[in-house]
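Raw record, unedited: Pollen-specific protein
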Amino acid sequence: MSESALLDADNIYLDGKEHYIRTGCGSVSVMVYGDHDKPALITYPDLALNYKSCFQGLFFCPEAASLLLHNFCIYHISPPGHELGAAEISSEDPIPSVEDLADQIIEILNYFGLGAVMCMGVMAGAYILSLFATKYRERVLGLILVSPLCKAPSWTEWFYNKVMSNLLYFYGVCGLLKECLLQRYFSKEVRGNAEVPESEIVQACKRLLDDRKCKNVLRFLHAINQRPDITDGLKRLKCRTLIFVGDSSPFHSEALYMTSKLDRRYSALVEVQGCGSMVTEEQPHAMLIPMEYFLMGYGLYRPCYFSESPRSPLSPSCISPELLSPESMGLKLKPIKTRVSVPLEV
């Protein structure tokens, strides 16, 4: 692998620009990385997170960064009040619904003059982008969803969210709330226990959570806890969809359910073993090969100087089936319809 290529990818990702965009339901922060002339990839994080705490692990994985930054200009959208250093949103501002947040995305695309975009979302962010795709199908090229939601909250999730709402309201971003969020994000293996210390990614996430304003998180949580079921809309989607979920994620069954409701001709599910919900941070390398195959359907490839990587196909036209075995990837793959030999509509 070329060292200069790694440095180039790092420099591109460190050279981002933050935009504050006024929309119909408040101001929103968008961090933009890369060449504006390239196709757009928009991201949306989970509750209490932003691009740094939700996608940094993936984009700091050299092979994944090269694949994405070589092919896309990245637009990291933060939920209102979730960007780094965000001030507390005024209590006089109305609390947006999930519909408002989805509509906010179309305003962002119009602001930047973007047409159809690739979308990547995690948990609540995956729901927002899926809702956006059902409402504005012509503006979505494809969906890469991590531990996605599509149904209204179950009684268990609703109660759990109410507990977090009360903690936020009375105690702010306290230690107990952080533990609730960490259980949502990560597997118990990286959260640690009495014998095993928590991993560095968990420690880093805790530090980043300290920056969150409790009222801002509460507003997003309120919207997510009132979300409607969008299953019927999923059936009408024709864009290609790639779903990742950790087998230890509390949303594992939700991801399986969502996959079953999508058109099998255009969708694929990747279950990541020994991983929680936030695959982008806990096991970002597990996303590489599925994303490569997924993007090949759009004629997008990794730059050739990364072809020496053991996790990369030797060439775009020569794909080894052995690379998709659970033994080589540490993954359980459900039927994938994203091989180059299968013609798919975009």
